[in-house]
């Protein structure tokens, strides 16, 4: 499991696990450190994909099913043990959705809550018609990357660092841009779903996520653009909200 998951502190006594999926090109450390911030009733697992961090020498995945299969192989026994929630931002929203779909359809397991951030639903018209960024030239790609914010300027100005960073980002975008799924005829989940987004980000079809669940559906907007969650103030609000939601879920589960 350690190959696929970063966890800064195992908590066998935790009542709930929060499984976090990285944004495109991202690693696991940003989320793994949440384990040091959230209270002891929660254990944080951050998904670590090939081609970065300790898996830097491994080839990138080429399609969504490869990600889903690896995550489920690593986590399925643990997900049967106790309640869990899923969190994903941007590319991570798609991967968490794909994992949740297979968990429910193949194993009849579902999270106590889905947290989806910074992305339209994968079957929405906005998402299907979105331009394929992974096919841009490096110069065009960097212009787009600069426009959405969230990437440190010192990184964008360093060609050597960019050569390490861009392949993972483009590989992840290739996966999500070629990922296709149909709008659910009926909701396959019954758990609550919360969508987060930055008020200054490009418009996302958040309402379309409502189709995945028969449970409660909530949208919360934050000041900021695509990477609103990197702002310390926003992150505190986000984590406080997640904590409150999951503590309530723990009481209901007990």
UniProtKB/TrEMBL annotation:
<dbReference type="InterPro" id="IPR029058">
    <property type="entry name" value="AB_hydrolase_fold"/>
</dbReference>
<keyword id="KW-0276">Fatty acid metabolism</keyword>
<comment type="similarity">
    <text>Belongs to the thioesterase family.</text>
</comment>
<keyword id="KW-0444">Lipid biosynthesis</keyword>
<protein>
    <recommendedName>
        <fullName>S-acyl fatty acid synthase thioesterase, medium chain</fullName>
        <ecNumber>3.1.2.14</ecNumber>
    </recommendedName>
</protein>
<dbReference type="InterPro" id="IPR001031">
    <property type="entry name" value="Thioesterase"/>
</dbReference>
<dbReference type="InterPro" id="IPR012223">
    <property type="entry name" value="TEII"/>
</dbReference>
<dbReference type="GO" id="GO:0016297">
    <property type="term" value="F:fatty acyl-[ACP] hydrolase activity"/>
</dbReference>
<feature type="domain" description="Thioesterase">
    <location>
        <begin position="17"/>
        <end position="238"/>
    </location>
</feature>
<keyword id="KW-0443">Lipid metabolism</keyword>
<keyword id="KW-0275">Fatty acid biosynthesis</keyword>
<dbReference type="Pfam" id="PF00975">
    <property type="entry name" value="Thioesterase"/>
</dbReference>
<dbReference type="GO" id="GO:0051792">
    <property type="term" value="P:medium-chain fatty acid biosynthetic process"/>
</dbReference>
<keyword id="KW-0378">Hydrolase</keyword>
């Amino acid at each position: 499991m350690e190959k696929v998951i970063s966890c800064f502190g195992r908590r066998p006594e935790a009542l709930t696990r929060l499984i976090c999926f990285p944004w495109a090109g991202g690693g696991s450390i940003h989320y793994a450190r949440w384990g040091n911030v959230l209270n002891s009733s929660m254990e944080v697992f951050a998904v670590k994909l090939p081609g970065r961090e300790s898996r830097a020498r491994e080839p990138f995945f080429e399609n969504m099913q490869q990600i889903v299969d690896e995550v489920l192989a690593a986590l399925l026994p643990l997900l049967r043990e106790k309640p869990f929630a899923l969190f994903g931002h941007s590319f991570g929203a798609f991967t968490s959705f794909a994992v949740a779909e297979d968990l429910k359809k193949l194993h009849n397991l579902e999270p106590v809550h889905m947290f989806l951030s910074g992305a339209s639903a994968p079957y929405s018209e906005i998402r299907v018609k979105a331009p394929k960024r992974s096919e841009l030239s490096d110069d065009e790609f960097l212009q787009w990357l600069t426009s959405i914010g969230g990437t440190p300027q010192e990184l964008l100005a360093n060609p050597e660092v960019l050569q390490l960073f861009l392949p993972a980002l483009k590989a992840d975008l290739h996966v999500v841009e070629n990922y296709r799924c149909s709008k659910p005829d009926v909701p396959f989940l019954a758990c609550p779903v919360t969508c987060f987004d930055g008020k200054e980000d490009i418009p996302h079809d958040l309402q379309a996520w409502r189709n995945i669940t028969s449970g409660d559906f909530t949208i919360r907007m934050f000041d900021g653009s695509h990477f609103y969650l990197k702002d310390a103030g926003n992150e505190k609000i986000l984590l406080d909200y997640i904590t409150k939601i999951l503590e309530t879920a723990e009481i209901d589960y007990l």
